[in-house]
Every structure is written in C-alpha cells, then in structure tokens.
Amino acid sequence: MFLAQISDTHLLSLQENDPVAVKRADNLMRCIDTINQLPVAPQAVVHTGDMINFGPENDYGLACEILSQLKAPFFPTLGNRDSRPEFIKSFLLPKTISNENAFCQYRVVLKDFDVVAADTKSLTRNCGTSCPERIAQLQELLKQDCDKPVFVFLHHPPTRIEALKNPLQFDEIENARAFTDLFDRFDNIVRILCGHTHRSDIVQMGRHQASTLPSLATDVRLDQYPNTLVNEPIFQIHELHEDGHVTSMSHFAKARPEAALA
Questions:
Q1: What is the structure's pLDDT at 14?
Q2: Is the pLDDT of residue 261 over 60?
Q3: I need a labelling partner for 148 at 20 to 30 A (CA). Which of 50, 111, 113, 259 fits?
Q4: Coil, strand or helix: which one is 3?
C-alpha cells in the first residue's frame, strides 16, 4: 500500500534548446521510467507543485506529454510558480474540478487510502497562504470519509522547518495554523506531503507528520549529495502499513537507455 511523490519539476520551454530545460525534462522522464518499472505499481503518483517555472502555456503541454507516460494514476496540485487556471485546465478538468478559476482542491478515492489535494497558492507572493473559503472547502473534502486513511498533499509546508533560511514558508503564521488546526481534527490523516523547500525533511505538524522532498529539478536542489549523485533526480515512496504507520524512502531515478527527448 504505497504512493509515489514527485515535486518541483520546474519545467522550462524546450523551444530555445536550453540545456537546463532539456535536463529538467529528462529528470522527469527518468523518474517516470523508474516508477513504471517498480515491481509493484503505486496506487497513485502525486506531484506537489511547481510543475513549471514561470513558462508559457506550452510548458504545460510538455508536462502533459511526459506525464502521460505514467502507468499509475497521476494527481497534481499547484505551486507558487504554477498558473491556477492553466494548471486546472491542463490536468484536472473535468476529472476532479469543474471550474478553472476554483481552488485546486479535490479528493480521490483509491483502493487502500484516499488522497486529498490542498491549495496553498498566493496570487501575490511566492509563499503559501490560506483563506476561510479554501479551508472550509478542504474540510468538506476531508469529512467525506473520516474512517479511511488519507494522504494530504500540498505545495507549501504549513509549519516551521528550522533547517530553512526562512523556517516558515507562509505569508502569515495564522494562515499556516489554519491548515494545522484543520488537519488536527482528523485522525485518519496518515501523512501531509509537501514540496517547495527543495530538500528532504520530516517534521511534526500538530498531531501529524509533514514531509518534504528534494526538487526533481536537480540544478535547484538544496540537499547535499556526493558528486556522483548531484545530477541524479529523486522521487519518494510513502508506504502505508496496516497499523497506520507511514515509512518514506527516497529513490534515485535510473538512467535512460536512450538520449533524452530523442
């Protein structure tokens, strides 16, 4: 019983043949290839935001093209660098969200657990935010089945991570607490999966644990790695055990046998 998580792909347009853009696209393709080759397929693959890097609309076309190769069900949420309307139009309509101007929040029913996407995007800043409307909507999603295990995934971690230069990646502490207070009401949340920080951490967030993972774009990753692993993209596997405990493991993506984007 597990899911895979990727994040912060920061895809760029390939029109200029920028080597950074080619590398980032190749990083994502390598991860998809590796996930597809796992002995047991994950019940879902989630993307915790910053799919593109302030690019034009065709960057989502590139993302859709690459991600369509995934064999497992794919569910994303948006980060501060994503365009909410274009993101929802490209990935979520009409499957889970019926309005391209709505918050990117939804629940998906899977076999052994559900996944719930939360929207932390601010329209004015790169840090996370919340508002009464999205918290109320998220509460209704979480109330749909309070007995089934749930992974919540969102971009900005709504808690302090002391290893960061700016430990709180939210505009206001009260807006971060709104998420924490809401999640604390639900015993069936098994892990809160976050992106944004470009590094791996597990921290206590109220009654639950929140985890982050390195950016898939290796050129902006913040964790330290040996020279032989600096350019190796990482995804994470989160396994839900029968007792409700979650274990997480980082995986390096395998090299592709053919040239990227050949």
A1: 87
A2: no
A3: 50
A4: strand
Domains identified in the chain, total number: 1
Average pLDDT for residues 9-33, to the nearest whole number? 93
Q: Considering only CA atoms, which of 126, 114, 60, 57 is closest in space to residue 92?
A: 60
Helix (H, G, I), strand (E, B) or coil at 92: coil
Residue 118 lies in a domain: yes
Banded model confidence at residue 258, pLDDT cuts 50, 70, 90 = low
Cα–Cα distances in angstroms (integers) from residue 78 to residues 53, 83, 171, 175, 249, in the given order: 12, 8, 17, 18, 23
Asked whether residue 160 is assigned to any structural domain, the reply reads yes
259 domain-assigned: no
CATH number, residue 35: 3.60.21.10
Residue 170 has pLDDT above 90, yes or no: yes
Asked whether residue 185 is assigned to any structural domain, the reply reads yes
pLDDT digits (tens, 9 = 90+) for 110-125: 999 999 999 999 999 9
CA distances from 190 to 45, 52, 182, 241 (A): 16, 28, 14, 10
